[in-house]
Amino acid sequence: MKQIVNQYLELLSLSGIESIKKPAKIEVPELTPAEKEHLLQQKRIEYSDCDMCQLHLGRTNFVYGNGDSNSKLMLIGEGPGEQEDKTGDVFVGVAGQLLTKMLTAINLNRDDVYICNIVKCRPPANRNPLPDEVKACSSYIQEQIEIIKPEFILLLGRVAAHNILKTTSPLSQLRGKTYKLDDIQVVVSYHPSALLRNSSFKKPAWVDLQRLRDMMQPNED
Ligand code: SF4
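Above: the input record for the complex with iron/sulfur cluster. Below: its predicted structure, written as tokens.
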């Protein structure tokens, strides 16, 4: 099989194609903080012209992720919105501003956490990403998790929860529990956009954040 792949790559090379852009799952060794940051910057550039799903057709910017690559907390949302597509940065629209306030409420600066999304290109009219789009993009998020190696992940909303936890359970049933992804403790809450649409979600979201804060606090000492 390896020989066939090599022959295929050789054939492509002879045709003037240098490589196939494939975000292969990688085993990431222990990296220094500077090496992590450098690797993520490299990956951002390497994947920025990805065309593995139809979402590339409507994007202005590929939105990889922002924040502290050495943070012990990683936040994963759904996909870029209009402002994120315009700027190339995650969570910079109204929902992003709310997220910043939510983090501040548990004494976290958003620059001190790493934030990214399940899909890196904006779905049209902010619709949910389709299963084939999520599948096409999934190796990017897996790789980000492997590079950052956070201690905690907060999944924001149903799309993130279903795809990282590989479940179809309603969000209401997924909240309030702690999941393990290898050594990472994973919790689920509402997406900030949902809080903007329905203020009744604010109270349970606050409960989720307080719980996350309590989980992280023993490690603050
Ligand atoms: S959403 Fe992901 S898989 Fe689809 S084009 Fe963008 S980066 Fe590639």
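Notes for the reader.
The beta strands are 66-67, 73-77, 114-117, 152-156, 179-181, 184-189.
Residues 131-148 form the longest helix (18 residues).
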